[in-house]
Design goal:
mainly alpha, 2 strands
Length: 348
């Protein structure tokens, strides 16, 4: 094989017909995997309008979470039950062909050594790009599949927990706030898995380390993509709702609460601020000594009183530019005033 420098001294270009043929075969394979994942995702897509918008996944579900936390059951609205909507023949194919396992097998990142070798050669750099695209499509596919199969189809609680751990503890931990496409796909998948674990009232999350919560918080505060930040808000808010009945999780509840207040006060996107407020209403609107104690410990009511007039002013200024996010923002503004009154009444 003949190796040649590309002139920059860093990348290497090689001339070898056999190697070129292998590279083309791998490219075809990666393109085929991407197409297959997109087809599977579309088969599981319940939103008719967005099935082809691969680069712009809607992670907010604008109508979801717009609830009055004082009048309805928080648990039912934080993570709604999802009806299994797959056609019977598609469902049967998913199970008989072990499609979920095949999708999960495509979620592995390249190891450091392989990544270094591939980026050294100009011909193989495109393989890295295509592999990353397949990884993101696999995560988006998991998001849709998890939402449309029964827990038993997904391996029960154990299978879902293993899937959560592999994405959250391994894939997410290896990413940075700059990996926007990957982070959006990853947090969408995590949110869908967490919804199912929430429905099963999983007790596994009480063993989460402070580092795990810190990782999620840092991504939520640092990522430039608002959809990622909104996903992180919902993930941490739901984790808080799972932990709020466990007195040993008091520090975690307080940490999540402070994160939600911080992002609701400082985020540049009014929609993300509204998502943060919704999560606060869900978590601290619950009855119980733990939620109330955590609320007092972090000075929740006083912080929300400070936030309220600023949020109201921003809503008035940006109302015409909010588009489809206007209902979420307006509902959050109304519920913020009611929530403050509700919490003040609790403390009397």
């Amino acid at each position: 094989m003949e190796l040649e420098s590309n002139g920059g001294g860093e990348q290497i270009e090689f001339k070898n017909p056999e190697a070129d043929s292998i590279i083309r075969e791998i490219e075809v394979l990666l393109d085929t995997q991407q197409m297959a994942l997109e087809i599977i995702t579309n088969l599981c897509c319940t939103d008719d309008g967005d099935s082809d918008e691969w680069g712009d996944l809607d992670s907010s579900d604008a109508s979801e979470g717009i609830v009055d936390c004082m009048d309805v059951d928080t648990e039912e609205n934080t993570v709604p039950q999802v009806a299994e909507k797959l056609a019977p023949e598609i469902h049967e194919a998913f199970i008989s062909e072990a499609m979920m396992q095949k999708v999960v097998s495509l979620m592995k990142k390249l190891d450091a050594a392989s990544l270094e070798k591939l980026t050294q050669h100009s011909q193989t750099q495109q393989l890295v790009v295509k592999h990353q695209r397949v990884l993101c499509r696999a995560l988006l596919c998991v998001n849709n599949v998890v939402s449309n199969l029964t827990p038993d189809d997904l391996g029960g609680h154990g299978g879902l927990w293993q899937l959560w751990s592999s994405i959250g503890c391994e894939a997410l931990a290896q990413s940075t706030a700059r990996d926007v496409e990957f982070l959006e796909a990853c947090t969408c998948a995590m949110r869908a898995i967490l919804q199912r674990l929430f429905e099963m009232k999983s007790d596994k999350f009480k063993d989460m380390s402070p580092g795990d919560l810190q990782l999620l918080s840092e991504i939520g505060l640092q990522c430039s993509e608002e959809a990622v930040r909104a996903n992180i808000i919902r993930i941490l808010g739901t984790l808080g709702c799972l932990l709020v009945s466990d007195v040993s999780s008091m520090d975690a509840i307080k940490g999540i609460g402070l994160f939600l207040i911080d992002i609701s006060s400082k985020d540049t996107s009014l929609w993300v601020c509204a998502e943060g407020l919704d999560a606060i209403f869900d978590l601290f609107g619950q009855d119980g000594a733990i939620a109330e104690e955590a609320s007092r410990a972090i000075g929740l009511v006083d912080k929300l009183k400070t936030l309220s007039p600023v949020f109201k002013t921003k809503t008035q200024q940006q109302r015409k530019s909010l588009g489809e996010n206007l209902p979420v923002v307006m509902t959050a503004r109304s519920n913020l005033i009611r929530f403050i009154k509700y919490k003040e009444g609790q403390s009397k």
